[in-house]
Write a structure and sequence with these properties.
Keywords: Coiled coil. Pfam families: Thioredoxin_3 (PF13192). Helix content is 44%, strand content 22%. It is α+β, with helices and mostly antiparallel strands. The chain has one domain: Glutaredoxin (3-Layer(aba) Sandwich), CATH 3.40.30.10. A four-stranded mixed beta sheet has the order 2-1-3-4.
Amino acid sequence: MKVQILGTGCSRCKKLIKNAEKAAEKISEKIEEEITIEKIDDLTEIAGMGVMTTPGFAINGEIVESGKVLSKDRIIELIENYKSDEIR
């Protein structure tokens, strides 16, 4: 699974990256899947994915949230929901 953080490196984007790293570390064993974190900082690519307010948060290329610094627990919840939807 690929988690993507979309942003230009502002403090909010950096905080989201840290929270995503913590969440990935905590949940990857539970969902039995490796989670990679990709940072996307190219404005054209960010806008092309539909994010107008950073930071953006995507799972496997699908934008899940934008304009918010998600907590570790919220990221875990989003990953679990994504994974359960993927199974159905």
